[in-house]
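Figure S4 source data
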Amino acid sequence: MRNAFIERKTKETDISINLNVDGTGKFNLNTGIGFFDHMLSSFAMHGGFDLLGHVKGDLEVDQHHTVEDTAIVLGQAFNKIISSDKNIKRFGSSYIPMDEALSFAAVDISGRPFIVYDCPIKEIKTGDMDTELFKEFFRAFAFNAGITLHTKMVYGENGHHMIEALFKAVARALKDALQPNDGILSTKGVL
């Protein structure tokens, strides 16, 4: 079983996450941001990741620290798992439709962090969450996981549908990339 436990305590947040990438989609994490919890729950379910822990952030200031630090911890948990298991497919991609929306994600588990985030959302908020924070989330996640992540909102009208499809697409792409492979998939011999 591939799992990791990461804690992060700052003056702004107190976060611990236990991640199992070979799970069943169990989710027990309350960030205090309802829509964010819904997205993380979808991420866990569609990736087959068990995602358990606690998140306490300075929501009296705003949501930024909570969202970014949750992404940092989640990325570090993925990185810890990836670092201990290099015999993986490495690449994964997924298109996910949700009603009128279609989102795409591609991932390379390479140890070279990079992100392309082509996801314009016209709404300023979705549910109780500032939509500008999704870019911050995926950037912090990709850089702390040590992965290359490309995301694209292909089309859509409803911000909720677009963002949820994106979280599911990233989860499915990661799930595919983390599948076992016979040896290291690199001409260099290392990731």
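Figure S5 source data
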Amino acid sequence: MKINLLTVCTGVYPTEYARKLVTRFNQLTELDVTSYCITDRPKEISSIAIPLEPPFKTEGWWNKMFCYSEDLIPKGWNVYLDLDMVLVDNFDKEILYAIEKGKKTSSFKDAISWLENDYNSSFIVFKTGSMSDVYEKWESNYKELETYIGGDQVWTGRYLAQTKQWKDILWLQGKFPSSKQSLKFQLASVKGDNLELPRELPEGIKIIDCNGRPKPDSLHQLSYIKENWHNI
């Protein structure tokens, strides 16, 4: 099965994050993968993935919206991953299940339904062109949306809800409840003012989402982060 792996490396994220994510994905998968990176520094990225330069400049997380562009993204099935993910185990089953169901887009629901929104844009499986209406709507208003609270994820979720496209989303946690977990909001526990991170991972976790803080580069003390991120 051929797929496109998509990442976005712009702004403050170091190129090293892109290298680790692409390298680890290719170590784990048995799929036929071509890696692409939407980036504002193509020369740095070219040894890691095929660079895709955005057609215009936008801010931060909004660069992720270019993944939905039918003109920028090569045709085929795409797996998009945020750069702050730590990949622990092979998750080809999850990808192939999403492709088999053939929905507009597939994702795991947001860990905390941030701003009353379930859509999570840190891991997405979709076919090139299936999200063209989302891209076109955003492109026509992108300047006004740069200060939108919740950014690309919340805006996209609300757009899909308003246009009655929720039935076209495949929520993967129903089939794979443990596969993707948020380190901060699902695996950690809060004790007073402290965030206590697990010393060991529960069974079945394949993807750790380091959304928010802390990020993987500051988590040397956790063996599962060290093995699957620092040592890559």
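The mean pLDDT is 96. Residues 131 and 177 are 25 Å apart (CA to CA).
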